[in-house]
Amino acid sequence: MALPLKEVAALLGLSLGGTYQAIRAGEIPAKRIGGRWVVPVHRFHTWLNTQDSDPAAGHLAA
After folding, report:
1. Which residues belong to any copy of the Helix-turn-helix domain (predicted)?
2. Is residue 62, in this structure, part of any structural domain at all?
3. pTM of the predicted model, to two decimals?
């Protein structure tokens, strides 16, 4: 199962453009299927659990 980018953006409190930028930079785990990006749910939760919770650290944090 995969999350659409609009949902990932909402969960992280990011704009859709910022979410695309983070995906292209490799900061958020995603796959391109056909012409659209999706974020595998398991990889997203694993990634999210490993993120620094201090926004001042310069990482994406939720």
Report:
1. 5-51
2. no
3. 0.74
